Amino acid sequence: MDIRQATVDDLLGMQNANLLNLPENYTFKYYLYHALTWPELSYVAVDPRGRIVGEEEPSDEPSGHVTSISVLRPYRRLGLANKLMKQSHADGEDAYGMRYLFKKPTPS
Ligand SMILES: CC(C)(COP(=O)(O)OP(=O)(O)OC[C@H]1O[C@@H](n2cnc3c(N)ncnc32)[C@H](O)[C@@H]1OP(=O)(O)O)[C@@H](O)C(=O)NCCC(=O)NCCS
């Protein structure tokens, strides 16, 4: 599984992963806003066919808050969420001096 920076072309796939995995959902406009404002901080996990199987979107630098992190069920417990978090944290640190990256629990 490949972890790479998200592009505008990935936004529909990211929104889809979020819709499938989480009760907190966002408009496409919100994803676009993230991609344009913090282009270096959103990451996707993609399978060998290029399908997005995980996504993460931080916001609110310099202490980062993850807006959404999700991994499709068949791809869970493979370390993808860990990799997505580490990648965003490292880039947030480089770009904005972000020391911490938080994810508040999602209300169930
Ligand atoms: C939460 C979620 C993103 C984890 O994705 P993942 O790729 O399976 O996670 P990883 O394999 O990278 O595991 C990360 C850590 O969480 C632990 N973990 C993962 N799923 C777990 C579970 N169901 N119960 C307990 N621990 C779990 C792993 O053991 C690992 O811990 P470690 O770093 O100490 O070894 C995924 O289960 C998901 O999409 N859930 C639905 C959406 C959601 O709840 N998002 C988070 C909102 S707060």
UniProtKB/TrEMBL annotation:
Task: Note the superkingdom of the native organism.
Answer: Eukaryota
Q: By its UniProt entry, which CDD domains does this protein fall under? A: NAT_SF (cd04301)
User: GO CC: one term?
Assistant: NatA complex
Q: Which family does it belong to?
A: Belongs to the acetyltransferase family. ARD1 subfamily.
Q: Which GO MF terms are attached to this record?
A: protein N-terminal-serine acetyltransferase activity; protein-N-terminal-glutamate acetyltransferase activity
Q: Which SUPFAM superfamilies match?
A: Acyl-CoA N-acyltransferases (Nat)
Q: Does the keyword Mitochondrion apply?
A: no
UniProt protein name:
N-acetyltransferase domain-containing protein
Which positions fall inside the N-acetyltransferase domain? 39-89
Q: Extract the Pfam families matched here.
A: Acetyltransf_1 (PF00583)
Q: Does the keyword Transferase apply?
A: yes
- UniProt keywords, alphabetically: Acyltransferase, Transferase
